[in-house]
Design brief:
Elements: E1 2-5, E2 14-15, E3 19-21, E4 25-28, H1 36-44, E5 49-52, E6 56-57, E7 75-76, H2 80-111, H3 116-143, H4 152-170, H5 175-187, H6 197-200, H7 208-215, H8 217-227, H9 232-240, H10 261-275, H11 287-296, H12 304-314, E8 322-325, E9 330-335, E10 345-352, E11 358-362, E12 370-373, H13 376-380
Antiparallel strand pairs: 1-5, 2-6, 3-4, 3-5, 7-11, 8-9, 8-12, 9-10, 10-11
């Protein structure tokens, strides 16, 4: 593996073989230009060197090693029935979570009732499910996009909770703190329930008065949870989840060292979820673009440790991401490769084994690689 100094790399150049960060994390495939945006991120995060077995070039040159001529040694055939069943169960589990939270929020908005014990038990179920079948749950999050014309609070809370627990797991939080983090993530938007629903479900730009009302929801959530005797750490997460490291957040414009850990995690999880979800006023970004946007961390808004934990636990090519492969095929990332996390497992659309089973292909250096992410419209075309 050859070492290259970041300060000597040229923007929009290509590498003849995959370029890695710290000899493990994929930065670009041979078909992808090394854009200036990525170089700026590497410099900002004080990464001085990157690694590749290839060489830097001004233009992309398709070599024999970058073309897939055979699927030998890169194709892994999974049990179609087993994966199909697990995906169906993950979808059922996810829909059950959304239903649970929808009803939880209805009761809370009508009668100020939030059952801490019931929420805690549900978080234990989520944490256990993530531990056992995270890859299928992440695929469901991508496959089932929230309807932009419906109440997004329940789906946003469920998705943010799943991502928060994944981050917390990567950070090796003890189990009791992981559960507490999950509870905090699930109820962090409780204050929104105190506002007229037509404000946060609006499909137009908010006026000045409505914007002022929205800014009050962390304080409303804190007061609500405190009155219901939720632990202080959970109440603070509701209060601080819109605070930012550089003091630009609200409601108290806290600086990083004053913001609680749960709030920092939820801030990153919420932002990633929002970037990748369609809203009435915006289109969703793909997981790869969402990751890059958080990696830029413009204005130092998020805790670098939490952002890195998100990237390293979900990968720059997150499970569920639609991708274009170097053989021209389209597919979806369905799993990481435990022996080599830099090359995810991809389900290639329209490819089957001779006996009709779905074929999963493990991307591999010098063989099959990811060229770029695809959006849903490109998949449906």
């Amino acid at each position: 593996m050859n070492e290259f100094l970041v300060k000597e790399l040229k923007p929009n150049s290509f590498f003849s073989k995959t370029l890695y960060l710290d000899k493990a994390f994929v930065i670009t495939a041979p078909e992808m230009p090394l854009v200036d945006e990525v170089l700026q991120i590497l410099t900002k995060w004080s990464f001085n060197s990157v690694f590749s077995e290839g060489e830097q070039r001004k233009e992309y040159s398709q070599t024999k090693s970058s073309v897939v001529t055979s699927t030998e040694n890169v194709t892994t055939v999974f049990s179609q029935q087993s994966d199909s069943n697990k995906l169906e169960k993950a979808e059922e589990f996810y829909k059950g979570l959304v239903f649970f939270v929808e009803n939880l929020f209805i009761r809370a908005s009508v009668s100020d009732e939030l059952d801490y014990k019931a929420v805690t038990e549900k978080i234990k179920d989520i944490a256990e499910y993530i531990k056992e079948d995270r890859r299928f749950l992440m695929r469901v999050l991508k496959n089932i996009e929230p309807a932009p014309d419906k109440n997004y609070l329940a789906t946003h809370s469920v998705r943010s909770t799943i991502i928060s627990i994944i981050i917390g797991t990567y950070l090796k939080l003890p189990n009791y703190r992981l559960i507490e983090l999950g509870v905090a993530a699930l109820v962090h938007e409780a204050g929104m329930l105190k506002l007229p629903s037509n404000i946060y479900l609006n499909q137009r730009a908010l006026n000045a008065q409505e914007q002022k009302a929205i800014v009050t929801h962390p304080i409303l959530g804190y007061s609500m949870l405190k009155n219901l005797d939720f632990p202080l750490a959970i109440c603070l997460a509701a209060l601080e989840h819109h605070e930012r490291e550089n003091g630009s957040g609200y409601p108290r414009r806290l600086l990083g060292e004053k913001i609680s850990l749960y709030s920092k995690i939820i801030a990153v999880a919420c932002s990633y979820e929002a970037l990748n979800s369609k809203r009435p006023y915006k289109e969703a970004k793909d997981g790869y673009t969402g990751m890059l946007e958080l990696l830029k961390n413009e204005g130092k808004r998020y805790d670098d440790t939490i952002v890195k934990a998100l990237v390293l636990s979900l990968s720059i090519y997150p499970i569920g991401l639609y991708v274009l492969l170097s053989n021209g095929k389209k597919g979806q990332v369905v799993d990481v490769n435990p022996e080599s996390p830099r090359f995810p497992v991809v389900q290639v659309f329209g490819e089957f084994t001779p006996d009709g089973k779905i074929k999963m292909i493990q991307t591999a250096q010098n063989e099959l690689t990811i060229v770029r992410p695809l959006n849903r419209s490109e998949i449906e075309a």
